[in-house]
Design a protein that fits this description.
84% of the residues lie in helices and 0% in strands. It is mainly α.
Length: 349
């Protein structure tokens, strides 16, 4: 009877925890971007927090406030400015579609003159006009979600920083591993977080900056806007930044600027592409080597879950999922529970 009551209490508690946890997770889905962002920034700022509180003897609240200011200035302000620039362009086109239609009409006339293909067809124009209001509504909704998640991020990050060691000890006890293997798992997860939170944005900024130089040299209209879009194109494998600079080179050719078109195409092929390979090589030596497909599908998942911030948090979540899957396979399928946590081949190679 006693064993039955113990099993009943254990399983009932498990069902209760699972049910409440699933309900809370579903209700917090709109705020997942802020929660993931807080956890990511905590990993990046943890060392500074330890230095300020344990070495400099600062009060946890004062140290957390200082690091919040750092997070806002170094992470959130640049991200907000980039998002705002994209929003302004989309909103401007949605409010004044005639400007876009005029540009498309001129481009279609050039295309018809050079190739004989008539892009300015009634069906294409109707589709373009119908798409603009939806794009404006999507952007407006993204702004509201982004602002709410920023508030959630800062609030949660503050309490994570002030919680510090106690929070880490509690989470550490919940990890289903023992001894040194638990330390290996924590270290690997830390490497994955750093690789996604630092490596992906750094690669995007480097490639976008190099592409921006080319756009300025060869006279691409609105080069800053296209440079920012090139940053986002870095997450797409194989095609990557060519998704931007190749059509821009074609546009310059249609405009009759053949020298600039050939120069931009050569610059993108010889400079931008090789800078991408060199930057990836350097990052792989210093950080976790995440497979490009993990980044791509992670971005798709992240955009659906987190919106704009999903570009970073989507690959992070997918990498952590594949790592946990690798640990499960090694521990319970392969029967090697006592070995140290080697890098997850599914997520890397």
């Amino acid at each position: 009877m006693r064993n039955f009551r113990e099993r009943y209490g254990r399983y009932a508690l498990f069902v209760l925890i699972f049910g409440l946890g699933a309900t809370i997770f579903i209700e917090l889905t709109p705020f997942l971007g802020g929660l993931m962002g807080a956890a990511t920034l905590y990993v990046l700022l943890r060392g500074q927090m330890v230095f300020l509180t344990e070495r400099r003897r600062w009060r946890p609240s004062a140290a957390a406030a200082l690091l919040l200011v750092e997070a806002v200035l170094c992470f959130l302000v640049p991200l907000t400015l980039v998002g705002w620039m994209l929003v302004v362009h989309v909103q401007h086109l949605a409010a004044d579609p005639q400007q876009l239609l005029h540009a498309v009409k001129n481009l279609s006339a050039l295309l018809y003159e050079r190739t004989g293909y008539d892009l300015w067809q009634e069906r294409n124009v109707a589709s373009l006009i119908a798409m603009l209001p939806r794009a404006g509504q999507y952007v407006l909704g993204g702004i509201v979600d982004f602002a709410v998640n920023i508030v959630v991020l800062l609030l949660v990050l503050y309490f994570m920083l002030t919680g510090g060691r106690a929070m880490e000890a509690y989470v550490r006890d919940l990890i289903p591993f023992d001894g040194g293997q638990r330390d290996d798992v924590i270290h690997e997860m830390h490497q994955i977080v750093r690789s996604n939170a630092i490596g992906i944005p750094l690669l995007a900024v480097v490639q976008g900056g190099v592409a921006l130089v080319g756009y300025l040299i060869f006279g691409v209209p609105d080069p800053l806007f296209w440079g920012v879009l090139t940053c986002f194109a870095t997450v797409i494998p194989i095609v990557g930044t060519a998704l931007l600079w190749l059509p821009l080179a074609a546009y310059l050719a249609l405009e009759g600027h053949w020298a600039a078109a050939v120069g931009l195409a050569a610059y993108g092929t010889l400079v931008v592409t090789h800078v991408d390979n060199l930057t990836r090589l350097v990052l792989q030596r210093r950080m976790a080597d995440i497979h490009p497909l993990v980044t791509v599908f992670g971005v798709f998942v992240g955009l659906a879950l987190f919106g704009f911030m999903g570009i970073i948090f989507g690959p992070l979540m997918l990498s952590l999922f594949l790592f946990c899957l690798h640990i499960f396979k090694r521990r319970y399928i392969d029967g090697r529970p006592d070995e140290s946590a080697d890098p997850a081949p599914t997520a890397r190679h």
